[in-house]
Design goal:
The complex is a heterodimer of chains A (117) and B (119).
Chain A (H helix, E strand, L loop, with lengths): L3 E4 L2 E4 L5 E7 L3 E10 L5 E8 L5 E2 L8 E7 L2 E6 L8 E10 L7 E2 L3 E5 L1
Parallel strand pairs in A: 2-11
Antiparallel strand pairs in A: 1-3, 3-8, 4-5, 4-9, 5-6, 7-8, 9-10, 9-11
Chain B lengths: L2 E3 L4 E5 L4 E3 L2 E3 L5 E8 L6 E7 L6 E3 L2 E6 L4 E6 L8 E9 L10 E3 L3 E6 L1
The chains are: A mainly beta (117), B mainly beta (119).
Chain lengths: 117, 119
């Protein structure tokens, strides 16, 4: 099946710093990527949808200036949490879909656990 | 707006028992897709099944089975003869059809059901 990777898997940073999370489709071209956030013991909430070469579409309540999403190529999308604060600590998961992979589903990455001190 | 409700927050069973996880959904779309995912403690989402709104056939895969009933907007998941390895959080999710009619529109997840299977 199609594989999606995320890097890093875990990151700890100080409050006020920026953190970049990468999401890569390893064996298919991801025309669409999604970014989700999951707080402890809660469900996944969609943050934004990005299509390759276009600006991301953010869900209501998600600050686009704080969560910068770039989908510059068909295999890579990045999420940058700018000026991170402890309340941004969460599990961030990306998913990807596109050509070369089954159209049956999105393929999820393994997630990135962000802890902001 | 789309909504998925998993009324069971936590379920605890003893190994070999059968267990059913409930999922009820709301959508105004005529074309939509339903999913079940398993999330073990590692956090990675494991895809279990996808169903489109036009296919109401029930499905069985090993010890797993799914019952899709459009009349009650439900998509329930049953594990037969549960095992300790089935312990995880299970999410039901609903996807609108994308612009191209595929199933990878944005997903709306239910709250999740924590399943614990005791030896």
């Amino acid at each position: 099946g199609a594989v999606v990777s995320q890097h890093p898997s875990r990151v700890i940073c100080k409050s006020g710093t920026s953190v970049k999370i990468e999401c890569r489709s390893l064996d298919f071209q991801a025309t669409t990527m999604f970014w989700y956030r999951q707080f402890p013991k809660q469900s996944l909430m969609l943050m934004a949808t990005s299509n390759e070469g276009s600006k991301a579409t953010y869900e209501q309540g998600v600050e686009k200036d704080k969560f910068l999403i770039n989908h510059a190529s068909l295999t890579l999308s990045t999420l940058t949490v700018t000026s991170a604060h402890p309340e941004d600590s969460s599990f961030y998961i990306c998913s990807a879909a596109g050509t070369g992979a089954s159209t049956d589903t999105q393929y999820f990455g393994p997630g990135t656990r962000l802890t902001v001190l | 707006a789309q909504k998925v409700t998993q009324a069971q927050t936590e379920i605890s069973v003893v190994e070999k028992e059968d267990v059913t996880l409930d999922c009820v959904y709301e959508t105004r779309d005529t074309t939509y897709y339903l999913f079940w995912y398993k999330q073990p403690p590692s956090g990675e989402l494991v895809f279990l099944i996808r169903r489109n709104s036009f296919d109401e056939q029930n499905e069985i895969s090993g010890r797993y089975s799914w019952n899709f009933q459009k009349s009650t907007s439900s998509f329930n998941f049953t594990i037969t003869a549960s095992q300790v390895v089935d312990s995880a959080v299970y999410f039901c999710a609903l996807s609108e059809a994308s612009a191209g009619g595929t199933s990878y529109g944005k997903l709306t997840f239910g709250q999740g059901t924590i399943l614990t299977v005791h030896p």
